[in-house]
Amino acid sequence: MGQPILWVHGDCLDPTAPIFDRYPHAPAIFVWDVALLKEWQIRLKRLVFLYECLLNLPVAMYRGEVAPLVNAFVEVHGGDRVVTMASPSPRFRAICQQLAYPVEILEPEPFVTLPANADLKRFFRYWKLAKPRLGL
User: What percent of the chain has pLDDT over 70?
Assistant: First the structure.
């Protein structure tokens, strides 16, 4: 039997996330999604922030198209499934459907509960909604 492979994405940058606790020795991958970066026009400051977060995680970083790179990583490491954290992103669901292996999606403990239609593209918009709900 193979091993789980962890797929870390932008909604899973917490070193205390359940996937790292549950599978502490599993190989992990993060893919810089070139299409997403271009579509969202993510600025350099945000990229640096993401990179600094990733430096605190036990992940191999790649750049390109997510599903093919995750599939290849699973194969190279003898994996039998992909384990990741849930994400509200429609792109996340589309990528999961493109994976050639079973996907186990773990749910994080919510930091804050936001409306389903909340705009999460910019941190400031998120924080403007989240801060009052946290009593700050």
Answer: 99
